Amino acid sequence: MTRPRLLVFLLALLCPWMGAACRKNTTSSEKPALVVFCAAGIRKPLEAVAAAFAAECGTTVSFQFGGSSTLLSQLRVARSGDLFIAADAETMETANRNGLTKEVLAFALQTPVVAVRTGNPKAVASFEDLFRPDVRLALTNPETASIGKAVRAAAGARWEQLAAAVTVMKPTVTEIAADLSLGTVDAAILWDALPSQFSGIEAVHLPELDAKREPASAGILSASTQPVEALKFARFLAAPEKGGLLLKAAGFTPLPGDTWAAKPELVVYSGGVNRPAIESLLQAFSTREGVGLTTVFNGCGILCATMKTLGDGQNSKFPDAYYACDLCFVPPVAEQFPEAFLLTETEIGIAVREGNPKGVKTLADLAQPGLRVGLCNAEQSTLGFMTRGIVKSSGLLESIQRNVVVEVPTADFLVNQMRAGALDAAIVYRVNVQAAYAPLEFLPLAHAGAKAVQPFAVRAHSPNRQLALRLLEFLKAHRADFEKAGFVWRGSEAPVQSKQIEVPAWLKNN
What we know:
Helix content: 25-40%
Radius of gyration: 31 Å
Distance between the termini: 103 Å
Structural class: alpha/beta
Number of domains: 3
Number of helices: 19
CATH topology of the largest domain: D-Maltodextrin-Binding Protein, domain 2
Largest sheet: 11 strands, mixed
Number of strands: 22
């Protein structure tokens, strides 16, 4: 065969293969499958959830099943995949502590039970019965599976004795459930949803085991190359009308997740003082989660008034989260935001131009003749409300008010007017001066109330409550951004109940 004919022949052979390759390339835009490391005991509902997710969202899910602790060990080595689904809190906390996971969404509660053959022929009715020599007991290895750790914790000091009485110990809970179903053992300790998935067995609840209830949760792996899709699957899994229905049908106790939306819209109200620290963080969070985010920055007086106008929280424009300028503006909306998480604080003081040409040193100096003073409005903003309380309690309200030439909703307006030369002095937050990048100086006030603490609160009945709580955790993970903006960090403190927040005496009659 001549060379030209040989070339034609080879091309003829290759064309079908090349055509297939081209067709394959045309579908390369399809979403890659999510890789999920999943606790074996949750296999049945998770496969159903994955099928529903693929049908609705177009992304397939590939599973690797095993004991939670075994999977955790594999993840430490592999450093790959998209999600880790663990059957207990401790394993997920370990994954998070070791940097293997980022966001965590709990989706179901599981309770250990003693599973026995139908009719309970061995009459197992107490924890003590598990030690009987006539009861062939199956357990999972506590080093590989979450249920094994729960049993070890329930047994306490008697764990070694119980382990010695075991007929068979295996790596996963589904393996011992199968042994019991086949009749090779008389009892096995399983998660409460499993007995209904195997024939010929039933559950016996014991108080020692009921106390070891654990949340099953999905953690987004740090190694994931598609976190937006991984988070979407986790939200789908936890959504009451999606994964929640399938979990319940499989005998699990679903935890309340957010109302399902392929792309949720989170609404955040924030006092203006927080803007320099959180504006870029909010954008980063929105991108990471693949969600929409509407942020309203304004004076807290205006924000609270707007929320009261919106009513009882059923309005879709009602904020899911509220980041106030100070604790004193949380009580007005305590019904909707019952818990406040302290994040930061900043001082209140006087801003003057560089070199302090008017010689302002104290609050009383703001009353000197001819001085142009700017304040925040007491009805519209936290700073204005607190400023009026500080000035009033100092006996200087009338004398300083004579020099006030402007009142605005937020302190950034005052800083802009200071930069433009329209004001000689203004009462602002320290962070306002630091963020101004202008030749201004900050003079602290000698008053016990010259400090504002910024709390973050999540609406109790928000359809995006879990998403808003993840935003809170995201902000907490970026302490350096707040400190760079000039705030003092308070994010490690315990939350406070909004109704228990007491307004200081100097503000009560403000």
